[in-house]
Task: inverse folding
């Protein structure tokens, strides 16, 4: 049994194999020697120490086993999500949506439509795993199955990470402390290396770099968005990422999406940006609160994407020139290939 094996391990080997075990022993008045066997450690605890802890020796051992079992359960509870399916409901006028869409891991689906058309409502239906119990009457399936009640309303088993338009931190932490705390809660190994990687990846996305020592409350909107995208890609266990507008974030949009897709996330993104819309594998067109059309991005559209990205790079160059205090007289005609008379 695992319990017997745990008691036969040394403190050092226990901490190496199960880093979270160190937290259990942190409340002991004396730090255990690394070379000590666990069974000897418990056997050698004095009665005075046990009295201070308020429990018997057998009770302490039982609590140790319970703690280890619970932590193992938390680590193993992640479920592989290979697809989500959206079954149509109705629009704002009660007209039925004739739609059925299955989205697989690693796909990007864009949601387009006029302001107020219902893009955010669709994202909310997915986040809530709607079962015909939202205003749209849509149904969302996970791996082709109806999610059970516990899955829908469990805090620990959230499937969806949502990056909204407005992000504000209220904690008095540095970037490194914030990411490190999240990494610790996920019980990942090599927390410092993971934290540094996430900060590096976020800086690769952000227009303006920030330091590990930067307070999270001092991050700009774009820096916050970049940090949370990197965090969602490398640390979050949520298999589905919903993004409500990315065009105004001031970050490398293509690289941001690539990070998420490379981690086999299912990405759904509401957008007004033609470049982002064409980056998706498919796009959902929303009108009057309903799914009006589902369009697969064609090869010709992808060719147009290259043109749009070139235009965007030119605009970015102009934007950067203005930021640096330069004048753009003549730059526009040169960039656009125009000749002034």
Result:
């Amino acid at each position: 049994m695992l319990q017997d094996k745990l008691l036969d391990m040394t403190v050092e080997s226990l901490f190496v194999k199960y880093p979270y075990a160190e937290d259990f022993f942190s409340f002991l008045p004396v730090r255990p020697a690394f070379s000590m066997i666990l069974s000897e450690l418990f056997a050698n605890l004095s009665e005075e120490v046990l009295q201070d802890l308020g429990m018997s020796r057998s009770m302490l051992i039982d609590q140790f086993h319970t703690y280890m079992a619970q932590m193992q359960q938390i680590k193993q509870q992640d479920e592989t999500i290979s697809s989500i399916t959206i079954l149509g409901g109705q629009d704002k006028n009660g007209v039925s949506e004739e739609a059925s869409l299955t989205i697989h891991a690693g796909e990007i689906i864009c949601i387009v439509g006029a302001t107020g058309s219902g893009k955010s409502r669709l994202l909310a239906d997915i986040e809530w795993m709607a079962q015909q119990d939202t205003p749209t009457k849509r149904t969302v399936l996970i791996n082709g199955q109806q999610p059970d009640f516990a899955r829908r309303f469990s805090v620990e088993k959230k499937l969806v990470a949502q990056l909204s338009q407005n992000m504000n931190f209220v904690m008095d932490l540095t970037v490194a402390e914030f990411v490190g705390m999240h990494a610790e809660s996920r019980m990942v190994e090599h927390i410092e290396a993971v934290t540094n990687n996430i900060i590096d990846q976020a800086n690769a996305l952000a227009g303006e770099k920030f330091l590990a020592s930067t307070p999270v409350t001092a991050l700009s909107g774009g820096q916050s968005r970049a940090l949370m995208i990197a965090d969602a890609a490398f640390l979050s266990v949520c298999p589905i990422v919903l993004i409500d507008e990315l065009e105004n974030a001031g970050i490398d949009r293509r690289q941001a999406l690539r990070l998420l897709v490379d981690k086999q996330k299912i990405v759904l993104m509401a957008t007004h940006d033609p470049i982002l819309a064409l980056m998706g594998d498919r796009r959902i067109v929303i009108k009057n609160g309903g799914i009006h059309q589902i369009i697969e991005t064609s090869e010709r559209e992808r060719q147009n994407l290259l043109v749009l990205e070139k235009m965007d790079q030119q605009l970015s160059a102009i934007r950067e020139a203005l930021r640096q205090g330069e004048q753009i007289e003549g730059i526009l005609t040169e960039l656009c290939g125009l000749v002034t008379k």
Observations:
- The radius of gyration is 26 Å.
